[in-house]
Structures are given as structure tokens and as C-alpha cells.
Amino acid sequence: MPVSLLDRLFAAGLLIDTGVDGLYGRSGKFEEVITRFEALIDRFGGADNPEAIRFPPGMNRAHFEGSGYMKSFPQLAGTVHSFCGCELDHVSLLQCLEEGKDWTGQQQATDIVLTPAACYPLYPTIAKRGALKEGGGLFDLQSYCFRHEPSKEPTRMQLFRMREYVRMGTPSEVMAFRQDWMERGTKLMEEVGLPFEIDVANDPFFGRAGRMYKNNQRSQNLKFELLIPVNADAGPTACMSFNYHQDHFGKTWGLATADGETAHTACVGFGLERIALALFKHHGLETEDWPEHVRRALWG
């Protein structure tokens, strides 16, 4: 039987099995590739002088609820619960543990929700500042994100890092930003020698209404993905996305342009673990043996 990519990564020590599908440790070599690739992202986008913000992997639960995420993606959300009981409750919890019973009933939801996408904490944060300056805003984000979709495909992790550039402004400003990054993304992937295609896409909206949202998203070309073949038994993996949100977040959070109009937003996202996996898949598990032009792009 052929050895899967995930098993090869475990055997090479690049990923570390935790016993939970989609939850992996990373070796120093794996982390170095991500660090080098992020430096390459900086070279492509740093000259635009974005405002860098780094949020933690948890966000304000009230902001999460206000975002509408649960209406569209309840199957992916993750919440943070904690023990909030008294001493008697603690005794009951310990008894459940000793008897091998479910002890999680003793937990209560906290004010923290696991961040589903790096940009979600940004919109209420910027809205609190007031209207955007003339020319809008540009932000550089990176965060661990959580999505509950356990899988043995290494590209479908439950906890992963997302790097984003987010543009806020007028429709013409944010659409120009997205088009520019679709061209930059093409050049960036060519530098690291990865095969790819760009295609229209949709988010995994949930339920019957979700099918309508998917169709609308595709018909309006609101989302494109840069796809790279990584998994042998599946289609190509989305490693970058180019998204136009129209005025959705502007209306949700009251984001306004300098002249008082509702701001539109767009973002480009990099799935950092997925890109690292694509590099190991196509160039080999030993970075020292990668093609010279790829090493030059990443290590200089």
C-alpha cells in the first residue's frame, strides 16, 4: 500500500501526531519554512505599508456573535469553556473522571471563542476608531485559527495559521487591491516553483440557505482561490484566497469611509501550513535538496 503524505510527514518528524486528526505538532524545520515564506510575503506586500496587527487565537464572544458567523458556518465554530462551579461541583467532576464518564457537563461557555479567520477581530476593532482616513485602510494580520473539520488530510487542520492583508475603502479601492493581489499571488507561487491554478470558489455555507449563498458568491465572483495539488486522493488544495466582501462587514460593524459612506472590504489570505505542505510535497521532505531557485527565493 502506498504511504500517505501524512504518514510520510510523521515519519520524517515534520509533523507530530497528537492522537487527534487535524491537530499536529510542528518540527523546527517545518516552522522554518513557514517563517521563510512569511518573509517572502513581506517582500511582496510590505512596501504598501500596511498596519500590522496580531490578534490572539481567541476573540471576543460578543464580537463573534455579532459577525453572523453562526448563521453561515455553525459546523466549523469552536468555543472556549471552563469550569465555573463550586467545591461540590468539583467533587462531582472528579467523580466523573474517576469513573470514566463525561465530565464536560461541568463546563460553561466563557467570553472567548476560537478565532475562525484572522480578519474577524479586525472589523469591530477598526470600527471603534471611527471613519477611515482618506484612501481607506490596509492591514496585515496573522493568527492561529480554528475550524472543526477533523480529517486525515494534512491540509485540513483544525488549528492552523492564516496570514491576511485586509483592505477597507470604496468599492473601486478594494476591488483594485484584490486584482493586484491575484497577480502578485501568481508571481509569488512561481518564485517558489509550485504548480497552481486560480478558480472561482465559495465558502462552506451551512444548510439549505447555504446553497443559495454559495451560488450567489460564485455568480458574483466574490471569491477566488489559488489551488495547488497536495493530496493524492483529493482535488487541489486552496492555499490562497482572494475575497471581496462587498459592504457586508461595513454594514455589520458600521465601518465608514472618510466621506461617510459604508466601507467595502476585501482580503487576500495565505494558508501557511497548507503552503508549507505544498512545498514539501512538490520539492521533497529535505529542504536542503530543494531546487536552487526555490531556496534562493526563501533563504536568499
Q: Which descriptors apply to this entry?
A:
BirA Bifunctional Protein, domain 2, alpha+beta, seven-stranded mixed beta sheet, 11 helices, three-stranded antiparallel beta sheet
Q: What does the secondary structure layout of this molecule look like, with pairings?
A:
Elements: H1 5-11, E1 15-20, E2 23-26, H2 28-45, E3 51-53, E4 58-60, H3 61-67, H4 69-72, E5 79-83, H5 87-98, E6 107-114, H6 122-127, E7 137-146, E8 159-169, H7 171-191, E9 197-200, H8 207-219, E10 223-228, E11 237-246, H9 248-253, E12 264-271, H10 272-283, H11 292-299
Parallel strand pairs: 3-7
Antiparallel strand pairs: 1-2, 4-6, 5-6, 7-8, 8-12, 9-10, 10-11, 11-12
Helix pairs in contact: 2-10
Quick gist of this model?
It comes from Rhizobium rhizoryzae. This is Seryl-tRNA synthetase. The chain has helices spanning 5-11, 28-45, 61-67, 69-72, 87-98, 122-127, 171-191, 207-219, 248-253, 272-283, 292-299, and strands at 15-20, 23-26, 51-53, 58-60, 79-83, 107-114, 137-146, 159-169, 197-200, 223-228, 237-246, 264-271.
